[in-house]
Specification:
The chain is an all-alpha fold and 335 residues long. It has 16 helices and no strands. It has helices at 2-14, 26-47, 54-89, 96-108, 115-128, 136-153, 158-175, 178-194, 199-211, 215-228, 233-245, 249-262, 271-283, 287-300, 304-316, 320-333. Helix 1 runs antiparallel to helix 2 and helix 5 (115-128) runs parallel beside helix 7.
Length: 335
Amino acid sequence: AITFSVLLTAYFISSMFFFDSLIIFLPFILVLVFLSTISSWWDIAIKANWLRKSENYKVVLGVVFILVAVGIFVNFQIAKASFHYYKIKFDKNKDFNELVYSYEKLSSIKPNIFEAEANYSFARIITKNKIDNSDLKKYVKKSSEKLDELKEKHPLDIRPYYYGAQVDLLNFNLSGDKETLMSAKKSLQKALEIAPNRQDLYMDLAQVEISLDDYDSAISNMGKARDLNFNYSRPHFYLAVLYIANDDNKNGEAEYEVAKKLGIQYTQNDISNLLFLADYFISGKNNNEAIYILENVLISGENIRARKKLAALYAETGDKDNAIRHAGVIMLIDP
């Protein structure tokens, strides 16, 4: 028992960097407890003269050997699985092919104690990163199927529904199939039944409904997201776009002013919405607000459309210096 305990301890310490969850150590602890118990039983059996019979000794020794061998095999399997899980969980793969290799290897190892976490991490990586690979569609489908299985196994866990929706949205972007949007909508609605106070879920649901051209539902759900945390500016910004797109200019401008007052860090993903708002303010002859929005577009990254609009607006407002400055940049980018 002492010998096996020392060997197992040395093995697990050497493999420690693979692990990020205490539950992985459960089999190890159980083996040590088992060995300690066997040792105690052995002493009792010897004192009771039960093991002195050769046939009893051989039976007990055989059982001990089998149980210890199984314990060590299971722990080696767990260590091997944890190596691939670690690479997926923390996105340690250099490219998509390496990610897929770890994912396939992990799926083939039994017992697959990392099944749920690995599939959530895999879904997170493929949906949050821009991946250019011919096999992406194949693994999007596989991920979707695995997440559907996890929904059945863990009906009260929000994660298979949340990641299932993200994978469905990626599938829509790859295939254009609106059925995947309906699947994403159902997953998000189910997730909201489990966690009704998650602001991000309402925002995601509203984005799906925009893609389905259901603006009324999108406004309703984005409004719920706003009400959960009024000081978060993004729902106000999205509501401004939605209201104006739905010809409710009064509410749209009111939400825009709140978003502007709260402050918002724009990204490349906001450019189309910012250009939409700029065009709206230009049509209403509010050139100063349009200029403010377009300058924010350029802060997010170079955009020739925004720069051309700015050059024209500055010229119209009599700001020749800025008009010439933007025109000069346009000539360099697009002579």
